[in-house]
Amino acid sequence: MISTLKLVGGGGAAMPAAIAKKLKDLHGLNYLKGYGLTETIAATHLNPANAPRAQYLGMAVFDIKSCISSPQDHKELGPNEIGEILIAGP
Question: What is the DSSP string of 44-70?
């Protein structure tokens, strides 16, 4: 049955890199991670199927705006800075 799969995806906890690599090595399948919140009802970010990246929560979908913000002063942070994810949408 696994031969009929075209992709595998999920959300929640991060997929361990070693398991994602084994999935790719054994079956040629990329693991596509998504991100969302119960409060948003659906995914707010999806890893693109045509260019998947490991350990990447994905790009914002539809009309979603997001950024990483400093928890102290709520200023938007740059690449590789640690903060909180802020999400806004319609």
Answer: EEE--TTS--TT---EEPTT-EEEEE-
* Count of beta carbons in the 10 Å neighbourhood of residue 20: 20
Which pLDDT tens digit goes with each residue over 27-54?
A: 989 888 888 887 777 888 888 888 888 7
In angstroms, rounded to a whole number, what is the distance separating the alpha carbons of residues 56 and 34? 8
pTM, two decimal places: 0.71
20 SS3 class: helix
**DSSP conformation class of 77:** P
Domain definitions of the chain by residue range: 2-88
Rounded-to-5 percentages of helix, strand, coil across the chain: 20, 30, 50
